[in-house]
């Protein structure tokens, strides 16, 4: 019964990973079957690259800000969906829509929203009087605004996933616990700190773990929105690995960039799973 799952893991996870590690230790290039081992030279080269250093910093900023925003907004939406109101089913559908929509199709809409000439955000700000004469935001042409646009689209994309997980966690808390806290005179803040968060810690940990891993390894939003521009200023490690390894043809360098954060992700996964297990036991 476990054979199909094991075969899937071996063929589509283990073998590609081992191949990436092997290629990162060589000077392999696209279009050539000849290569030689160079050891850790690829890692030394990328560590000294300003583009890689910028991409590494962007990866941590992108992940940290987007995941904090997703968890906070997901918690608010989950709490709202626990209430009874008219049109609740429609609201659930609209919240889940970004997760179901193909990212390539959705990004076309966001490209129009952030367009340098027809940006609906800029026109709304201009009509509202927040943009003076000659003032205009070039969202995808400025490094800071470009990263803000990437984070915005990623939060919009990941928010339904976080909302569903947090909603499941909130609904799993027995109502008797909250009723007992109300009888003891606990306020909303105390109930959140001493009841909701401790009882949801395993689910929060899983949601955060999946979100961090997915964000660290995702390149679709960056590549579709900015392609790492302007001047390689919005690259994350995943998009830089694609640019160097596939578009640039330097397979060894691309593989080195791709697996650079593997130790960080492994440590993070182990720590979060241990926290989740201890919370379940408690």
What is the CATH architecture assignment? Orthogonal Bundle
Largest sheet: none
Mean pLDDT across all amino acids: 86
Q: What is the CATH fold-level name?
A: MetI-like fold
What order do the SSEs take from the amino end to the carboxyl end, as H and E?
A: HHHHHHHHHHHHH
Task: Please write out the topology.
Blueprint: H1 3-24, H2 41-47, H3 50-81, H4 88-100, H5 103-113, H6 120-127, H7 143-171, H8 175-183, H9 188-217, H10 220-225, H11 237-247, H12 251-258, H13 262-281
Brief write-up:
With 282 residues, this protein is mainly α.
Q: What would you say this structure looks like, in words?
A:
With 282 residues, this protein is mainly α. It has one domain: MetI-like fold (Orthogonal Bundle). Helices cover 73% and strands 0% of the residues. The protein has 13 helices and no strands. It has helices spanning 3-24, 41-47, 50-81, 88-100, 103-113, 120-127, 143-171, 175-183, 188-217, 220-225, 237-247, 251-258, 262-281. Helix 3 packs parallel to helix 7 (143-171), helix 4 packs across helix 7 (143-171) and helix 9 packs antiparallel against helix 13 (262-281). The radius of gyration is 23 Å and the shape is globular.
Task: Give the tags.
282 residues; MetI-like fold; 0% strand; 13 helices; mainly alpha; globular
């Amino acid at each position: 019964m476990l054979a199909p799952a094991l075969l899937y893991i071996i063929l589509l996870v283990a073998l590609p990973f081992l191949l990436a590690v092997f290629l990162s230790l060589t000077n392999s290039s696209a279009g050539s079957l000849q290569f030689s081992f160079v050891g850790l030279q690829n890692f030394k080269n990328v560590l000294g690259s300003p583009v890689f250093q910028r991409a590494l910093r962007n990866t941590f900023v992108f992940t940290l800000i987007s995941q904090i925003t997703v968890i906070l907004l997901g918690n608010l939406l989950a709490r709202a969906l626990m209430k009874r109101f008219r049109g609740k089913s429609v609201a659930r559908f609209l919240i889940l829509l970004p997760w179901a929509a193909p990212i390539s199709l959705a990004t076309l809409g966001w490209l129009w929203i952030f367009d340098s000439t027809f940006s609906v955000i800029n026109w709304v700000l201009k009509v509202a009087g927040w943009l003076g004469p000659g003032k205009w935001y070039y969202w995808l042409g400025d490094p800071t605004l470009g990263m803000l646009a990437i984070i915005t689209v990623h939060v919009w994309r990941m928010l339904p996933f976080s909302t569903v997980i947090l909603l499941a966690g909130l609904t799993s808390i027995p109502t008797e616990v909250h009723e007992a806290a109300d009888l003891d005179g606990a306020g909303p803040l105390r109930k959140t700190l001493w009841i909701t968060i401790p009882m949801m810690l395993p689910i929060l940990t899983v949601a955060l773990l999946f979100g961090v891993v997915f964000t660290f390894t995702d390149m679709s939003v960056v590549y579709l929105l900015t392609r790492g521009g302007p001047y390689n200023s919005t690259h994350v490690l995943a998009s830089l690995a694609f640019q160097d390894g596939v578009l640039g043809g330097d397979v060894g360098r691309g593989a080195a960039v791709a697996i650079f954060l593997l130790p960080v992700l492994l440590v993070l996964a182990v720590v979060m799973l241990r926290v989740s297990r201890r919370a379940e036991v408690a």
